[in-house]
Amino acid sequence: MTDTTPNPTLDLGPQAAVVARLAEAVADEQLADPTPCPEYAVRNVLAHLTHLAGAFRDAGRKDLGVTTDTSPGSSLPELGPDWREELPEVLAGMAEVWRDPAAWTGMTRAGGLDLPGEVAGLVATDELVIHGWDLARATGRPYTPDPAALRVCHDFLEASVDAPDRGEIFGPVVRVASDAPLLARAVGLSGRNPGWTRRP
């Protein structure tokens, strides 16, 4: 008999909670600080996280529209006045949607691109892990991502190294030692320098 049971899906809840805690710790005076994303200040990373969480929430439930059709590169994301309440709420909502195995099946859309649900879930995981690192580094907070999400993120990024459209999504790979911690390797694969630090 052939086993047709779907592969277990990842619970995004633990990593979404890590990101929510990092966001909660951001002080107002840190919102203009630089981040490992050259064009993004802390406020822009927070805004991007808010927007992507809403987009992937809707992508997971196949509720396609403005949130799923907008390219993340279309404009610099700006933070709304109620972000401290909105961000944790939308992160939790996204995680809840992706607990449904149906979110990982069929076709959906995110960032204006049609893609399989499973791929959308992997992209969402990558976004949470890497932008969580961005936020932690920019604000000087310790960062311990959810181990399962980190492994999925690393493997997804590693598989994308030779993708023809990689340059449209990620920066050039930053090579790190093969025995470096998994987080450093994932960050390098995303096109970031794992050694990035805040300005003095």
Short description, anyone?
By secondary structure, the protein is mainly alpha-helical.
User: Can you give the helix content as a percent range?
Assistant: 40-55%
Oligomer: single chain
CATH superfamily of one domain: dinb family like domain
How many E-type strands? 2
CATH topology of one domain: Four Helix Bundle (Hemerythrin (Met), subunit A)
Description:
The chain is mainly α. It has a domain at 13-144: dinb family like domain (Four Helix Bundle (Hemerythrin (Met), subunit A), Up-down Bundle). The chain has helices at 13-24, 42-60, 66-69, 83-97, 117-139, 147-159, 182-189, and strands spanning 107-110, 113-116. The protein has a two-stranded antiparallel sheet. α2 packs antiparallel against α5 (117-139). The longest helix is centred in the middle third of the chain and has 23 residues, at 117-139.
Topology of this protein?
Layout: H1 13-24, H2 42-60, H3 66-69, H4 83-97, E1 107-110, E2 113-116, H5 117-139, H6 147-159, H7 182-189
Antiparallel strand pairs: 1-2
Features:
200 residues; Four Helix Bundle (Hemerythrin (Met), subunit A); 2 strands; two-stranded antiparallel ribbon; 7 helices; 4% strand; globular; mainly alpha
